[in-house]
Amino acid sequence: MSIGHTLLGLLEKGPRHGYDLKKAYDERFGQDRPLHYGQVYTTLSRLLRNGLVAEAGVESGDGPERKRYAITDAGVTDVEQWLGTAEKPEPYLQNTLYTKVVLALLSGRSADDVLDVQRAAHLATMRELTRRKASGELADQLICDHALFHLEADLRWLELTAARLGQLSAQLAGVRS
């Protein structure tokens, strides 16, 4: 996810302080990975330098001065272009799990055990996401659905791989010969 674009999108509703942007980000997108304050201010600094946001005032209070940021016309255009651009589909070719299966087979260890451990981890995560989805608002439900569908695809791959371990083992033995 592009933090810069997300902050720009949040600024389209009106000028905000960095603190307010962090809070809005965390409420909408940061359930699993909240944004650090340093990231917010570093990103705002870059957006300011690139002309995508502008300072919209400074407020003095009990603490340090608080700058308000507003999105510029260039920032709005940038968000529009980002929203209109498809994300690159990631095929996850030769991921870590595949590597573990092959290395288990090459070393004489049980690839079934590797798959079983991963299956258990996937199922535990799916149960947690299903509980979260049941009690969450619509946005959280959609995020959970996205994750659940990916985990389901991973489980299908785990089952298919388990069914083909004999073939893979034989093929790897042929390569070693």
Automatic annotation (TrEMBL):
PANTHER family xref list: NEGATIVE TRANSCRIPTION REGULATOR PADR, TRANSCRIPTIONAL REGULATOR YQJI
Protein's name in the database: Transcriptional regulator, PadR family
InterPro entries found in the cross-reference section: Tscrpt_reg_PadR_N, WH-like_DNA-bd_sf, WH_DNA-bd_sf
Domain Transcription regulator PadR N-terminal: 7-78
SUPFAM superfamilies named in the record: Winged helix' DNA-binding domain
Pfam families linked to this entry: PadR
